[in-house]
Write a structure and sequence with these properties.
Blueprint lengths: L8 H14 L1 H13 L6 H20 L16 H19 L4 H21 L4 H12 L5 H17 L8 H20 L1 H9 L15 H19 L3 H37 L2 H16 L4 H53 L3 H35 L1
Length: 386
């Protein structure tokens, strides 16, 4: 988990709504079932596991697993932990709401609870670990204010269902849980967030990435998404000029994803051996070559030495390519940032100038593709001899 997570409230709400829409009837009926079994005083003892059950359902839906109404009861698997965490936050809410500082702290506490519960349920953490991880995440100087806003808005969404004789709660409560699960995934499960992005209909991503390789490509993805938003919200005349760049943008991102995958493969390969090991092996073969008793054995050692020298050369080239890919991914992000700034400028300029600027955007994206194709070609050549 990053120590300074990025709080993207708008994206979390958008994806949470999409997640809810996958199983709206199932979510609503499960919420109704839980509510029917939580009338006072049962609410004090059963609300926590039923609420945890909604998290189970949302997590399953997020991972595209089949979601059933009976999943609402799966929260009882962590009954005591969920109940303890629920009571901990409930008492804190009550105490803080009676103080003047409560309005400043309660939304942050709500944001913490929204991260602590899925940690408890999805990762099987104990209450202390889940609470500590949520606390460290929310109370960061960089994002504290946005977490406060996030906690406030999600709590308002949940409470909106109380209007209309509380019937709306069966929609707004599971919707709020879906939003919370998306936030949890983005902060604590970046590899799942990336893989989920690749499962969208517009793009297939056939190879998984480890968590440590998600950061660079995720930042490129975020810039790409901002560019898409600018294009889609532009005036029709400007949008028409920029729509040609969308395909280029998709190609740039797909190639950047491919480069990131290759970077992971290179690191995995380089981790299996070191230059020191290869040179030690070369010295050993050279010694055996000098001591070989006959021509046949000499030829075998000579061939082995030639193969090893090729491996050493490829190892050096792979290290160079690894540095180039790392630098190229940074360059791609910077170029896309500049493209984003250009598109904003295009939207505020005259149509004739906008046409020139849009051509420049397309050229920038095409140049990026050419540069990445060259790197990928080098890697293809390497794979034939590695």
């Amino acid at each position: 988990m990053a120590s300074q997570p990025t709080v993207t409230i708008e994206q979390w709400f958008t994806e949470g709504w999409k997640l809810y829409k996958r199983h709206p009837v199932t979510f609503s009926f499960a919420s109704l079932l839980g509510a029917l079994m939580c009338f006072p005083p049962a609410f004090l003892f059963f609300a926590a596991p039923f609420y945890a059950g909604l998290y189970y359902m949302a997590l399953k839906a997020m991972r595209r697993e089949k979601t059933r109404i009976r999943d609402i009861f799966k929260g009882f698997r962590r009954y005591w932990a969920a109940l303890f965490l629920w009571w901990l936050f409930l008492i804190a809410f009550i105490v803080l709401c009676t103080t003047a500082i409560g309005i400043l702290v309660v939304p942050l506490l709500w944001a913490m609870s929204m991260l602590a519960l899925p940690l408890l349920i999805d990762e099987g953490k104990d209450v202390g670990s889940a609470f500590g991880a949520a606390f460290k995440t929310v109370f960061t100087w960089k994002n504290c204010a946005r977490f406060w806003l996030y906690g406030l808005v999600v709590s308002l969404v949940s409470s909106l269902g109380a209007l209309g004789f509380f019937v709306g709660l069966f929609i707004t409560v599971p919707l709020a849980v879906c939003i919370q699960v998306v936030a949890y995934r983005d902060i604590f499960k970046p590899e799942e967030a990336f893989q989920q992005e690749m499962l969208e209909p517009w793009q297939e991503y056939p190879f998984p990435l480890k968590a440590e390789y998600i950061g660079p490509i995720s930042r490129i993805r975020d810039v790409r998404n901002r560019i898409f938003q600018q294009i889609q919200s532009a005036d029709d005349s400007v949008k028409l000029l920029l729509e040609g760049s969308i395909e280029h943008l998709d190609n740039v991102f797909a190639k950047a994803a491919d480069l990131t995958h290759r970077l992971q493969q290179i690191d995995d390969y380089l981790a299996t051996t070191t230059m020191q090991t290869l040179h030690t092996e070369k010295m050993e073969i050279t010694r055996k070559l000098a001591e070989s008793p006959n021509t046949a054995i000499y030829a075998q050692y000579e061939e082995a030495l030639h193969t090893l020298e090729e491996r050493i050369e490829n190892h050096e080239r792979l290290e160079e390519l690894r540095q180039q890919i790392d630098a190229r991914l940074t360059t791609i992000r910077v170029s896309l940032d500049n493209t984003h700034a250009k598109i904003i400028q295009i939207r505020t300029t005259g149509l004739s100038n906008a046409r020139l600027e849009s051509d420049d955007v397309s050229k920038t994206l095409r140049d990026l593709q050419i540069e990445m194709d060259a790197l990928l070609s080098s890697l293809e050549e390497m794979s034939k001899t590695t």
